[in-house]
Structure formats: structure tokens, C-alpha cells
Amino acid sequence: MDPRSLAALMLISGVECSLLFFVAGVGGRRASPPLYWAAGTAVHVLGMFGLMLQGSVGPWLGIIVPNMLLVLGQLLILAGIRRLTGARGAWLRYALALAIYGALAAAFTYGFRSTQARIVLFSAAIASFYIEGAVLALARRPKSGGGFHVFLSSVFIGLSAFYLFRAGFTIVRPPDSIFSAGAMNLATFIVSHVGLIGWSLGLILMQQRITEAALEESAEAKAVLLRELQHRVKNSLSVVASLVGLEASRAEGAELTGTLDALHDRVSAMAMLYDQLFEAGDSESSELDRYLGSVAGALFQGQAAGERGVKLRLDLEPLRVDARRAVPLGLIVNELASDCLKHAFPGGRGGTVAVSLRVADGEATLTVRDDGIGLPPGFMPGSSCGTGLRLVALLAEQAGGSFSAASAGGAVFTVRFPVAGALGAEA
Which residue has the higher pLDDT, 342 or 234? Predict the structure, then answer.
């Protein structure tokens, strides 16, 4: 196959690569790297097409302009690599290099008229382009997952080595034309063709890896920010709970003290969830069994239930739920367990309060029960109940579930809510 046929194949591949870059850049931000590469490859194709017109047009259109287009195309590709890797722009240096190259190409065409000098000049310019591309790719290689950077740099280094060898070979054995029959001309078009495909693939893969790394970094930064926010919310709720507890200790009157104590327990229950989320490092979901156990345990400890002879029994199946759903469920346990401690064991009698969580067939059942005196006759949730149980009904609805109450060897409060996923884990 002669050099012109290889050049024609390279033109076709260049058009395909330009379209590939254009498609990759459409829909992204303005002046995205693939658009630079698409423009650079298109200009490169035009330059190659101009070179193929040698013999049919004059030296200006057949030699100087095509050579400048080839170099300009490579500089646009370099500019895209700089934009992708975050390196500073070098437009002034590139413009100066293009002007100098154009002047030398014109001098070697009209002044000294040396095909040998033009080929050496072009080979050196292209080799320098590939060297700069390799340096940029390696300099911005991430600590992990930098294989595509190494691949692209290897392609660039291999091409630069070939073009430097071609420059030296041309000095020793100058050809009549870049399209004249000869092993070096054939090798040049073959290597350039393979290199075009190689660095085009490398650029696309490197861009994808850098984009993925940026997204991972952004997600990690947002997660850290959210964790810090949760920590501050937890601290703020703890301060509020402490202030409410302080006021409760100073309050006069049993009703006011009871109201402040209940508010203290509710705020503390919410603070516990944020504390758990912060410790687990998961801002989206919570281990509901662990959270409910903490709420109930803290309530019993705060109200000295053990000293009164009231025991807490926990039977909680593992279940992970959305953090937004965990808040109302934690408040529900706080309210129901608190009501059991207040009303189930009058006269200093002892007993047991049991909190259980069961998951079956896409539904979770949360039960708080005691073995005390039970509910009063004619008890109807939502009508004759107090503020705490009305709040429980509202919280159950907020959690997407339902609330019921009954007497069976004591008071039995049940909240049912749907869950998704397998093994007790909500999706």
C-alpha cells in the first residue's frame, strides 16, 4: 500500500475520532476538553487533506497551510488536555510556537526550498507535542486508578520517540516527498494512524476517570459536610435538652415539671439519632434496632426505673431504615415507654416494660407493652387518650404506618409500618 492510500485511511479515522470527541463533549460544560479534541482532530484532518493536494495546488495551499493546520490541530488537543488536567493555559506560548513554525515552514518552502528541513521541522514539532502531552498526563495522575493516564503517556512517549527517530533518519536519508515510496514514509503513516486511534481512546478513558474521581471527591466532601452538620445538630439538641432539664429541676408544680421532663426526653431521643448517624458515618440510614434500644435505655436510666422495680426488656430484630423515618419511630418509643412508667405501675409496684421489633412480609411491627394495670375501660386511641398518645398517632402516620392500643395482661401499644428490601433492611 502506498503512502497516499495510508493517508486516506488516516483521514477517515480522523473524521471518526473527531465525531467521537464531539459526541463526548456535547451536553457538557462550555469549552469542555472533548470539544477541544474534536476541533483539534478536525483541523488535523483538514491539514492532512491539504497535504494530499500537493502537486495539484501551489506550495502555499499544498505545503505551508496544511503544515500549520496539522500543528494547530495538535495544539488544540494539548489545550484540551490542559483543561482536563487543570493545568494552566498556554495560549500565548502556543500562538508564538505556531507563528514561528509557520515562518520556518515558509522559509524552507520559498527561501531555502528544502523538503528535508520541512520534514525535520515537522517531526520535531510533533515530537515536542507528544512529550508535553505525556508530561501533562503523568503529572495529573491520581494516587489510585491512574492506569489510563499511564496508557496515554505511554502512547505519547512512543510516538514522540518515533518522530525524533524520523527526524534523525531524514537528516541521514532525506526523501523526495512525504508521499514518495519508502519504508520510512510508510512507517510514518502507519504509526501515525495507530497512534491517532491509541491517543483518542486514551483521552476518552482518561477524561472518564478524571470525571469519576471528581464526582467521588465531591461526594466525599458532601458526606463530610453532612456529618459535620449532623454532629452540630446533635450538639445543639443536647444543649437544648440540658437547658430544658435544668428548667425542669427548677420548675414549681408537678404539671409543669412533668411537661418539661417529657420535652427533655423527646429532645434527647432526637439527639441520640444524630449521635448514632455521626458515629456510623452513614447520613442516609440508621440501625433502627440499635437506636430504639438506646432511646428506651436512656429513658429508663433517666427516670430511675430500675430503682422503682421496673425492668426493661428489649427484643429488637435488626432493621435499617431511612434516617428520616427513624426520628418519629424513636419518639414513639420514648412516648410509649414514658407512658408505661407513668401509668402502668401505681403505688410503687414493680413490673416490666417490653419493647419489641419484628419484621415479616414487608412490614415491621413495633410493640411497647407492660404487665401493669392495663388501659382504662372504654379506652379509644385518638379520642380519650392524652397528648402523648395523640402525638404517637401522628408520628405513626408520619412514619407511614398505623397505631393501635389494647389491654392484654397490661397495656399493649402497636405501631405497624411498611419496609422494603430483604433481610430486614429497608432499601
Answer: 342
Cell 417490653 sits on residue: 354
CATH 3.30.565.10 domain span(s) along the chain: 251-418
**CATH class of the structural domain 3-219:** mainly alpha
Q: Who has greater pLDDT, 281 or 7?
A: 7
Prediction pTM value: 0.58
42's CB contacts (< 8 A; 6+ apart) are: 14, 15, 18, 73
CB 209 within 8 A of CB 85: no
pLDDT at 74 exceeding the cut of 90: yes
Averaged confidence pLDDT in the chain: 83
Sequence ranges of the chain with CATH classification 1.20.1070: 3-219
Contact yes or no for 175/115 (Cβ under 8 A): yes
Mean pLDDT calculated for residue range 242-246: 67
Mean pLDDT of 13-42: 83
Measured CA to CA in angstroms, residue 365 lies from 390, 394, 401, 403 at distances of 19, 17, 9, 10
**How far is Cα 74 from Cα 129, in angstroms, rounded to an integer?**
7
Average pLDDT rounded to a whole number, residues 208-219:
76
Residues 390-400: tens digit of each pLDDT = 888 888 998 88
Check residue 91 and give its pLDDT. Answer: 93
Contacts of 239 (CB under 8 A, 6+ apart): none
> Of the CATH numbers 3.30.450.40, 3.30.300.110, 3.30.565.10, 3.90.550.10, which one belongs to the domain with range 251-418?
3.30.565.10
Is the separation of the CB atoms in 345 and 310 below 8 Å?
yes
Phi-psi region of 361 (alpha: psi -120 to 50; beta: other; left: phi over 0): left
